[in-house]
Write the structure tokens for this entry.
Amino acid sequence: FTHIVVGRPTRSRWRELIEGSLTYDLIRNAGDISVHVISGTERNAEVTSRSVKAADEQWQFEIWPYLKATAFVIGSLAFAVVLDQFLDVRNLAIILLIGVLASAVTGGLWPALYACFASALAFNYFFLEPRYTLTIRDPESIVALGVFLVVAVIASNLTARVQRQAVAARSRARATEDIYLFSKKLAGAGTLDDVLWATAFQIASMLKLRVVLLLPEDGTITVKAGYPPDDTLAEADIAAARWAWEHNRAAGRGADTLPGAKRLY
């Protein structure tokens, strides 16, 4: 029998409704496969005492997706203004949705939500009576604005989710191709040095990082391969790697032992 074990989601229910839940999707599409959801809160005391705290992942705000979303909103608004005298206000709302969908495709969920509210304000200001004010006079206008905002949020969420799935599919395809090419290189490797160089090159190309491979030799740890080819380690890093190998504990950056090294081993 096949079993899938996943961790319990830590995000709030509202974020799951907006961004989707991997755990929920697995349970819904598992069929005859058993899915086990675990909390993952219990920890071994000894492991916790030896654990090394890594640097927290820093969230970086990128302005470029929001600038593109602003451009899409302005472009769709200009198109709607041109067609204002020919189309009903409901059709103009559909035109404004084009900017929201374009923002979701190119920038993801949050720029799309920004485009939603920007388009809603533009829709209210330019097309709902009284025009050129943010005041809403008629109950019908309130309903129209609310419907537009709800449809825009739902459409942007679905479009952003499809865009994320497409990116994930492309990443899986690239990873599969890289693994296939790597297997061909390994099949043609005649020596251990060839295998190590192919491994270093493949890891560096897939992760876009500098790679150094260390192996035990004559009772110590030495650098056997790296990519770029001239990549090497400082003495502090070699000492930390040797200590970690000899004592089977973490050493180097962020650890209690040899914290002066640039990397964690």
About this structure: DSSP finds nine helices and four strands in the chain.
